Protein 1
Amino acid sequence: MKRAIFVLLLLITCLSKISVSQISTDSILYKPEDKKIVEEKLQLFSKNAALPINELIVEIGKSFLGTPYVSATLENGAEEKLVINLRELDCTTFVENVLALSRAVKSGKSDFYSFVSELQRIRYRNGIRNGYPSRLHYFSEWIRDNQKKGIVDGSPNKNGQKIDKLINFMSTHPADYPVLKAHPELIPLISRQESELSKYDFWYFPKSDFVNLYKNLKHGDIIALTSTIDGVDINHVGIIIKKGTEFYLLHAPLSGKKVLISDGPITDFLKPASKNSGIMIARPIF
């Protein structure tokens, strides 16, 4: 009986986190500058470890202001090595890196591989990197998976509206994705993942209801701009900054070519003619 309890406790311990020792150096792609940036930011913000994670995320996010926007930095083949690139960011990698840094700081960690472990856990389904399909390509699934892992809270979306949404853009547009174009054998698996994702309720705050959205937004929320495009769940992501009674977006936009804070409020992204249908919230927790 004691042995069974010991084995159970050992199993729980192993499953509860990704061990740094499981991430070999030859499975990571990064440059010395990336390691330096990580270590400098962990050291710099260690004094802010007592801040609530929503405030810490905003402060670390602002430290990236001006960082160049570069897309597709994660594309490195079907094997899917873990890419560490803090020199060039797109909207999703900006959010992921800031969240991973914040969690490492809150954990009292200041070493590179603690950050790497956090990033892998955030970026991949169930925290396990196992080829290209294991990455959380759709941000609505990113929210759902990271809620399951206790990293974000998506429950505020239940105060919004539920719709059915068919997600299938990757499998129906494989030529737009270098890995799928080179490895069409992966498309059926991606299609099955999309089918599973499409079964879940799609909760969001429609752009027609600003009043309800503003009641639910908070400083430091990660938000996703939901899409009107067929087969697509999310168009863009970023971090909310509250100034007075208004909300702005800290993000890495293609249009701005760098990490910046939006000139106008979040409602500027939700104009009637835009392809953004509304907002999903992923509230960081620790």
Note: The longest helix spans residues 91-106.
Protein 2
Amino acid sequence: MEEHELSAEDEALLRKLIDDWLHDPRKAALLERDDFVDRFQEGVGEALRESGDQLLDTLLERAPEMLAEHREHRAAFEAELLTFWGEAFDLYETMHVCCKEAGRDFFDRYLPDSDVPHDYVFDALMRLHGRACLVASEVLTLLRAGFPSGAHARWRTIHELAVVALFITEHGQEIARRYLAHDAVQRYKSAVLYNEYHEKLGYEPFDPGEFQAIEQGRKDALDEFGDGFGKDWGWAIPALGENTSPTFKAVEEATGMDHLRPYYRMASDPAHANAHASFYDLGLHDPAGILVGPSPIGFADPGHGACSSLFQVTICVLAYRPDLRNAMTMNALSKMLDRVGAAFLEAQHQADAALKAGHWDPAEPEAESDSAAEQP
């Protein structure tokens, strides 16, 4: 067994525990017993548990004061972000609200009657646009709080939604129908995974009748669309030619959106445990540092990227039923997107310059460690 030396702090703590234990007359009497070692080990364990309880009580007692101070710092930091990023954030929110309202107006005006054949493209676009608006709200929240890489990771989702929306509008009703029906495949995979781990999670298994219905839904889908439909992107197979092992990248390439793959890769790193994300972060302004909290820089890529992808989804929607109102809206949104991009880029330049010149000291004191000198 590998031996470990105690640190000076741990040794001092252990000596105190032993001293406290020996000064208890009831426990000191154990020195005369044959089972002293076993009792001593029990006593040390008991002392550690009691010390842990006392530390927890102390931490909880001090929590309100600590949280009040922390929240004061957070509020000051977020307010100071607006010094450079306020205009860009406002334009982002304006773009987001306009896209959301444009989609709502479109779906209200063109919602199909129940007595006409089901419009699968309309249904898919309505769901994709709703999700894109939701995720765009999450991105804005992360931007305002100072988390650019987290915001960029959420942009990745809007990009995927934009790619799927474009792919569906290009290929029509059958691909849209397959996309919506693929929910049965994903639902089944989730149910199987849950049942595999429900005991370790401490939960009850699926109700047998409910699981059987989910299983039957998948079987019916495979019977209708073929075995390839059971793959993660199996719904897209008919539109991908000879590609029988479809991936998101294949769908992305088919739409001509693969030029954004470098950004997609950069946005993927923060969502995973790879080493690169530990060395690079959009909000890191000290190359030798390790970012452990919010940052005052790095918002240009996620901010402009999220608005661009939301715009793409919205254009897919509006172009599905072209009319004068939709054409005017698309033109206005296009011009607004240009302003969003310019505002984020200008804010990034100004914030970077102010930090380098030492003219700006963000109010969040623990966002970044002093150095990464202990890195291997």
Note: Residues 84-356 form one domain.
Protein 3
Amino acid sequence: MNATRYGAFNALVDIIAAPAKAFDEIRAHPRWLWWPLAITVALAVGAFAFYFTWVDFDWLIEDVVRTSVPPGGDPATAEAIRSFMSPGVQIASTAVGIVLFTLVVYAVQSVYLHLVNKVAGDPSLRFGQWFAFSAWTAFPTVFQSLAMLVVIFMASSNQLGQYELNPLSFQSLFMHAEPGTSWATWGSSLSLVTLWVIGLMIYGFSRWTGSSLPKSALVVATPWVLVYGIWAAVIA
């Protein structure tokens, strides 16, 4: 009897439940990257699109003005925000932002991993494989989008700020900084899912290159520590 054929759908399950098997297959099938990439982006865009059509938009505009323009601030800035914001504009700009941000982050990350691997890893690995690696290791971010939808469905009213949408963020769980402040933005950009993605990248890098887990952790975590460390230092 022939063994069941392993495909991209199996990898989508295994990257969460059994990443060792998934990483082995992903390395051999880099073109599967379109599955996690499309699902991740589509779910994120869909969650925000639903939010912008669900939220009390007049209230949202004033909430954005309140958190963006300090008391006694320039009235022209507040009016510019009010004139710019509409559900259609927010959905379109958010969708474009998510797509561009995702592709740029994956590309930069792939270049970094590819160059590091060339120096001290498996030289047979190509850039395309590292781009697929970036797409697959980011797949757990779908749970962030799902958590956002859960928050919306469980909200007591449709007056819910964007800063309240991610219950897994450091801002929601630990920091509770004033919305609109630099620390709130910093904390909102980090979440438990971020730690999951970093851990998955460390394990995947080790499996692909044969590096030890401590060495892989140093390679993978260094850019994250530098970016968020420098960002925090600037805020402080």
Note: Residues 8-235 form one domain.
